[in-house]
Amino acid sequence: MIERLILTLSLWLDWVARGAMTAILLLSIANIVSAALWAPIFGTYELVGFLTVVTLSCAIAYCTVNDGHVAVDALVQRFSPRTQAIFDIVAAILSVGVFVILCWQTAMYATNMWEKGELSGTLMWPFYPLVYCISFGCFVTSLALLVKLGKAVVRAAKK
């Protein structure tokens, strides 16, 4: 049940990331055409930066759910399945810890930015929604890593 919820949530976030990436592509093309014909689109550099943050923070959970990350396991493959599961447990615990701290600290930072009213330099848009987006992406990634941790514990117990 929880695994399905995390998969659905990460898939939804992946679609947001895909939309942001498409927006980057379209904005870049529009800016090139606009610059050639009239003048460049105001704030393009800033918008691309904002959309990049959305893309990365929303795509990481789906990547985690689908094991899309790079893993160097040439050495670990030589060990027994139980030892491999123990390595996975340790890696998952460390990863969950990192992403929980990232989630917590970025949420605190976003709240601080919101309270201070920090705005971007060109478009004068607030930064805090983007930082909350990072925090939420880290939260969902933490949940996905917890599921992986549970599966590794089951594998270690079986073998």
Structure keywords:
159 residues, mainly alpha, 4 helices, elongated
Tally of domains: 1
Number of helices: 4
The gyration radius over C-alpha positions equals 20 Å
Label the overall shape. Answer: elongated
Measure the end-to-end span.
25 Å
The biggest beta sheet, please? Answer: none
Element string (H = helix, E = strand): HHHH
Mean pLDDT: 93
> Approximately what portion of the residues adopt beta-strand conformation?
under 5%
Share of residues in helices: over 70%
Q: How many E strands?
A: 0
Label the structural class: mainly alpha
Poorly predicted runs are: none
How would you explain this protein's 3D organization?
With 159 residues, the protein is an all-alpha fold. It has one domain. Helices cover 79% and strands 0% of the residues. It contains 4 helices and no strands. α1 runs antiparallel to α4 (128-158). The longest helix is centred in the N-terminal third of the chain and has 36 residues, at 2-37. It is elongated. The mean pLDDT is 93.
In a few lines, what is going on in this structure?
The chain has 159 residues and is mainly α.
